[in-house]
Design brief:
heterotrimer; A: mainly alpha; ABC transporter involved in vitamin B12 uptake, BtuC; two-stranded antiparallel sheet; 12 helices; disordered C terminus; B: mainly alpha; two-stranded antiparallel ribbon; 2 strands; 1% strand; disordered N terminus
Chain lengths: 292, 376, 234
């Protein structure tokens, strides 16, 4: 029983954070067909921005979260303006964009190393302390993380569903020419998607770095899991991504509790391969042929 | 993509078959230089460092060339290349160090292990779309990294990797100088790998892939089953990468999880991208450039990674074809005789295809003689 | 003059498709560009609406020089282009597709009223409003495309081959709708492969061949000339 509670708790906690990370990846993929391998570095950038606000500027924690989001979003915008925009629509976009994001990712990581050093840091919790039920320890910070993630995901969902800009984002990812004919400024919409995506990565970074440690390379594993989630949910599908984030969160928690923490990543990996063999387009994915 | 249809001759047209006769002078010259280089260098102080750099160049350019074959030519967005390199390195390391095998024997197992690993990753992933391959290969990389750090003591060395791996026995050659042995064995493997990759580049497979690289949809539309070819190329590139990894382990006498660092991965990727993505000579040139740069900027280590990252992104935006096209003609002119009867109308941009060419020139030390598959 | 095209040239890659087109559409006028497939009708419309960049020539829309503007800027100026193949947002509902038609700022505020008006005009869409666009039949899709166009504050409506891929019964309905739009006073520029359905709609007809206008004249005269039509359209 306690084990089960532990699984549910960890599953919801990691699922929420994976959702934040993965939604950004899936939005970008949907809109521009860009696999953003700098996503993990944007996560790190957000976390360091939050850390700086608290430890260098001495501002309260409540300001750290919005600063993290803004800093990451600004980086996303710069990334779009300097690197992605000039490449849009060129032949060889697939490979060139992957290379560019790998390069940006490593450059950001190196910049973080230069600015903050290799030693791990931790962001203080918004709500320190915890309570125990049975043998399971629930941290208040975990609850905050879940709450923030769920609110952010809900807002994003509503934004995409019914706001003018949100609908434009969906429209651009489905039919670029028609969107332009409706009056949607396509490139500016891409920039917006990039900022939202990066901002969500930054949010995940600042939230998670109060639970785990922060180092210049600590964005890599969350990015890998977010990629798993994105693909598992069907690339480009927002609903699928959210469902997949929690499923993978639970799966990971279950493996950790019942098999052992060391097996979480290999387990996920094998699970992923199995899923892809059975459903090559993920849970909610549309076959690419139909998309074309 | 085959021979020009409006030329019905059955004889091979010298212009349509653009493999050129190598300048034997150049080949002999390069061979002699490559053979004598270490003997000469070792006479000078600091010369052994140059020999060391040349060994690094041989091994890393093998990795870069193999990865380029996967990434640039067949459009498999694999990031598993260093993991495969590590598989080779660890295989021979564990066999020779912990199990006491003869290093030559264990080194022979390294490429096989890497190939098997590649096939294991390739079977489920290469049927899938490009992005899945990125994920699965990155995940494989991450898994192996974890295993190399947290795995059983015999593999992880408690997180430090394997230290004190035996060198390759010289068997009395080179006065027992293992650096010279590494140099010559590296040179031989470099030549074989380069030659084999050159052959693939100019085979129908290579030419077809160069054409299809950016249009998976087109290939599917044409009913081309890329899967087997991709799997072959993936395994092939793993073979030489694993071999290079094994040789590196014995040369350095150790193998550690730092091989999985993202900065190493990015270094090799930069060799390909800066040299010339998808082109034959690009990765070789890139390996030389990057290794040189790395040495020149040794003091700036963290700034170096920052610079390489930015350079990668900038190259992708500004010059996706890399540096190689700037040098290609000059290298070709040095190594090969001028094309016979080249008409004035033949501009450099439209070099003809190379398939089916009987290769008479691939054994030259400088690698390929002509390059006709432009990067994009 | 709502639209003035002068010496327009356009193409893809190394090939030129349009070799200098001159065209003018008056307020409230119905102009039909006739021509066989592959002779540049779609390219012409796409270049006018800004999806393709003109290589030479000029475009004036509603008195403003719009040469070189992006498609979204031209759309904002009031040019509505119903493209070939509809280009619906496939994974959005019918209603969301229609709402996207009102994306431009001032119209967005009136989207509910406009939606009601479109539903009135095309009642079948109302029944399907919660369905995803990719679950519709060809005729329904065309209606969504037209309805989406009607959501905007149009000064000129361009339609590219409205009959393409539809069953004969439905084709008649589609032309009826376009006819009604034109009668409401909106200028219409339509590209078509044959002259079967355009009699009511066309005030003026132009024949396009190999990227050039080869004939131009009032609809009555040109459409009456059967020999001419069959020579050009086959």
């Amino acid at each position: 029983m306690n084990d089960l509670v532990q699984v549910v708790w960890s599953g919801i906690l990691s699922g929420s954070v994976y959702g934040l990370m993965a939604i950004g990846l899936t939005l970008i993929w949907g809109a521009v067909r860009l696999l953003n391998l700098a996503h993990g570095s944007l996560y790190v950038a957000g976390a360091y921005a939050g850390w700086t606000v608290i430890n260098v500027a001495g501002l309260p924690l409540a300001l750290a979260i919005p600063s993290a989001v803004l800093a990451a979003a600004a980086l996303g915008l710069v990334m779009h303006a300097l690197f992605l925009r000039p490449m849009l629509g060129r032949p060889g976009w697939d490979s060139a964009s992957i290379i560019a994001t790998v390069g940006i990712g490593i450059a950001l990581q190196a910049a973080a190393l230069l600015m903050f050093g290799p030693r791990v840091k931790q962001i203080p919790a918004v709500a320190p302390g915890s309570f125990v039920v049975g043998t399971v320890r629930f941290s208040y910070q975990g609850l905050v993380v879940i709450a923030v993630a769920v609110v952010a995901l809900t807002l994003l969902y509503l934004f995409l569903r019914s706001s003018r800009q949100g609908m434009a984002i969906r429209a651009v990812s489905q039919e670029m020419d028609a969107s332009a004919l409706m009056g949607v400024p396509v490139e500016r919409t891409y920039a917006l998607v990039m900022m939202i995506s990066a901002g969500l990565a930054g949010l995940a970074g600042v939230l998670l770095s109060s639970i785990f440690f922060l180092s210049p390379t600590s964005g890599f594993t969350p990015m890998i899991i977010a990629l798993l989630v994105t693909i598992f949910g069907g690339l480009g599908s927002v609903k699928g991504t959210i469902v997949a984030a929690y499923l993978i969160g639970f799966f990971e928690a279950a493996v950790q509790v019942f098999v052992g923490p060391r097996f979480a990543l290999p387990g996920l990996f094998l699970f992923m391969i199995a899923v892809l063999i059975v459903r090559p387009n993920g849970l909610y994915g549309v076959p690419e042929a139909q998309r074309l | 993509m085959t021979t020009t249809p409006n030329r019905p001759t059955t004889q091979i047209d010298e212009r349509a078959a653009p493999w050129r006769k190598p300048k034997w002078g150049a080949v002999v010259f390069l061979t002699i230089v490559a053979l004598l280089m270490p003997w000469v260098l070792l006479q000078f102080g600091g010369g052994s460092f140059v020999v060391h750099m040349l060994i690094m160049f041989f091994l890393w350019s093998i990795v870069a060339q193999s990865w380029n074959l996967v990434l640039g030519v067949s459009g498999i967005y694999s990031f598993a290349q260093l993991a495969l390199f590590a598989v080779g390195g660890w295989t021979t390391g564990v066999l020779s160090m912990s199990l006491g095998w003869n290093p030559w024997l264990s080194l022979a197992v390294a490429p096989v292990a890497a190939t098997v690993a590649a096939i294991v990753i390739g079977l489920p992933s290469l049927r899938l779309r490009g992005v899945y391959v990125v994920l699965l290969t990155l995940a494989f990389h991450e898994l192996l990294r974890n295993y190399a750090i947290n795995g059983p003591e015999i593999i992880s060395g408690g997180g430090y990797g394997l230290i004190g791996v035996p060198r390759l026995p010289t068997g009395g050659l080179f006065d027992g100088n293992h650096i010279l042995l590494s140099y010559y064995s590296g040179l031989v493997v470099f030549i074989i790998a380069t030659w084999a990759i050159w052959r693939i580049f100019h085979s129908p497979i290579g030419v077809a892939f160069a054409a299809l690289r950016d249009s998976e949809g087109y290939a599917i539309g044409r009913g081309i089953n890329q899967f087997r070819i991709k799997l072959f190329l993936f395994g092939f590139s793993a073979f030489f990468t694993g071999l290079a990894g094994g040789m590196m382990t014995h040369y350095l006498g150790s193998v550690s999880p730092s091989i999985f660092a993202f900065s190493v991965l990015i270094n090799v990727l930069a060799m390909i991208v800066i040299g010339g993505w998808g082109s034959f000579g690009g990765p070789i040139l890139g390996a030389a450039l990057l290794l040189g740069l790395q040495e020149a900027l040794r003091d700036l280590s963290d700034y170096r990674t920052l610079g390489i990252g930015l350079a990668l992104a900038l190259m992708a935006v500004v010059a996706p074809q890399g540096v190689w096209p700037l040098l290609r003609d000059r290298v070709a002119r040095f190594l090969a005789e001028d094309e016979p009867k080249k008409s004035a109308g033949d501009v450099a941009g439209e070099e003809p295809e190379n398939e089916g060419a009987t290769d008479r020139s691939g054994s030259s030390a400088g690698g390929g003689v002509v390059e006709s598959t432009p990067g994009h | 003059m709502i639209l003035e095209v002068n010496g327009l040239e356009a193409g893809y890659g190394v090939s030129t498709v349009l070799h200098g087109i001159d065209l003018a559409v008056q307020e409230g006028e119905g102009v039909v560009v006739l021509g066989p497939n592959g002779h540049g009708k779609t390219t012409l419309l796409r270049t006018i609406s800004g999806l393709n960049r003109p290589r030479a020539g000029s475009l004036r829309f509603d008195g403003v020089d719009v040469t070189g503007w992006r498609a979204d800027q031209i759309a904002e100026a009031g040019l509505v282009h119903i493209p070939q193949g509809d280009l619906l947002f496939r994974e959005m509902t019918v209603e969301d597709n229609l709402l996207m038609g009102a994306y431009v700022k001032p119209t967005w505020g009136e989207r509910q009223e406009r939606l009601a008006r479109v539903y009135e005009l095309l009642p079948t869409l109302k029944d399907r409003r919660k369905q995803l666009a990719n679950s519709l039949s060809g005729g329904e899709r065309r209606m969504v495309a037209i309805g989406r166009g009607l959501m905007a504050e149009a000064r000129l409506l361009m339609v590219d081959e409205p009959s393409l891929g539809l069953a004969p019964v439905i084709i008649a309905q589609v032309y009826e709708r376009i006819q009604a739009i034109k009668e409401s006073g909106l200028a219409v520029l339509l590209a078509d492969e044959n002259a079967d359905h355009i009699e009511q709609l066309a005030d003026r007809v132009v024949l396009l061949e190999s990227g050039l206008f080869v004939r131009e004249g009032p609809a009555e005269t040109l459409l009456a000339d059967e020999a001419l039509l069959s020579a050009y359209l086959g």
